[in-house]
Structure prediction request, 124 residues.
Amino acid sequence: MGEAPWKLPRETVGDVACSLLRENGKPMLFKDLLPLIAARGVVRAETPARVAAIIHTEINLDGRLQHLGGGLWGLRQWSPRRRPERAATPRLEWPEEDALPPEDPEPSGACEEAWSEDTEHWDE
Prediction:
């Protein structure tokens, strides 16, 4: 038989991070994850700083991983799932008729008062 015309994708930074976290069994600091991921050779870059930046970006983008604060990363599946809270529907209550302010018999709008003959008109 010949060689397959396709290849499986290589292991990603997220794959490596997930397996390292599973092996550890608890969240890990990024500074501890970084050299372990870099040692697997899944990222190639010109400088160590660039490797670190790529790894950090890839971890941030991977939905399986969760930043827990303070440089600590864990698997999202370890966090308890929150149920979305249902927003309470506000009940509209109409005021008593006696509580309504008296109606102004001739309402005057502030816009009308500010309009003068000296004001530039758009249609001119």
